[in-house]
Write a sequence for this structure.
């Protein structure tokens, strides 16, 4: 790639930056584990 101009480099760097921002936005945040008690034998309403 000897004919890549500085403008193309700048555009590529900007595109990479925007891609990284989008990836951070859509990456799910790890949520803390629930401390609520888990009831295994709940009677079903019937």
């Amino acid at each position: 790639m000897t004919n890549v101009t500085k403008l193309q480099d700048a555009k590529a760097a900007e595109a990479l930056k925007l891609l990284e921002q989008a990836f951070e936005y859509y990456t799910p945040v790890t949520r803390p584990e629930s401390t609520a008690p888990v009831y295994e034998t709940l009677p079903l309403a019937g």
The chain has a mean pLDDT of 82. The two ends are 72 Å apart (CA to CA). The chain has one helix and no strands. Residues 21 and 35 are 32 Å apart (CA to CA).
